[in-house]
Amino acid sequence: MPKLRLDKLLASQGLGSRKDVQKLIRGGAVAVNGEIERSVERKADPQADVITVEGQPLAYKEYLYLMMNKPAGVVSASNDAKERTVVDLVPQPLRRRGLFPAGRLDRDTTGLLILTDDGDFAHRMLAPKKHVYKLYQAELEGSLPPDAESAFAAGITLNDGTLCLPARLEVVSPFPPVRARVWIREGKFHQVKKMFLSQGCRVTGLKRLQIGGLCLDPALGPGECRELSAQEVASIFH
Question: How far apart are CA 149 and CA 238, in angstroms?
């Protein structure tokens, strides 16, 4: 890969701001191929050169992919002047510049959320034409009509006239509180809630369980996150 300025390279790995890592470099805390490097303008290849910071080898990753179990009450954004965001929940060792939620969950919706700094990956995952289905579990107030599953399969028309792509609906429990699962491959504003509303039901609880072939890790508590393996990232598209 192309060589990168040492300060930019280290900052991209979550080691601090450009100013922070420049202090590390000038202070003699960074070595390249065994030699202390004090020039912030020095360029290095993170895949070919051995870079250490305070004696620890740098495990360079071009992009970061995190799975979060999003709790209710936080917004799916990188920053917000008034609200706590999902990025605010990421522990310091996993933070890096440019991290953002790949797709949004409503403030009160919980479950699987992926955070990354890879824009191309996010586009591939979210574009409807890529056919990456997202699975949601909903708790409903009201009763679904008998033809709800076929209506979802044909493509729901929302109350405002918006047409949704065909989706799969599975009624888990028809008795109050009604519970259902729905698979969609697009993400219009409040789409799942509006789809059920068009069928006479109000969503009282909504959780995303799966994206493509990737399921929410049951070991993650609300607000917790962990890094995805390369195999897990690939499973999203299978």
Answer: 25
Residue 23 has a pLDDT of 92
What is the token pair recorded at 104?
């949004």
**Each residue of 182-219: pLDDT tens digit?**
999 998 889 999 999 999 999 999 999 999 999 999 99
**What's the pLDDT score for residue 209?**
98
Q: How confident is the model over 43-76, as pLDDT tens digits?
A: 999 888 899 999 999 888 889 999 999 999 999 9
Mean pLDDT, the chain, whole residue set: 93
Catalytic residue (one of 49, 106, 108, 217): 106
Structure tokens at 227: 């890094």
pLDDT of residue 71: 98
The rounded distance, in Å, linking the Cα atoms of 84 and 166 is 34
Tokens matching residue 147: 């033809």
Q: Is 106 a catalytic residue?
A: yes
Q: How far apart are CA 68 and CA 220, in angstroms?
A: 8
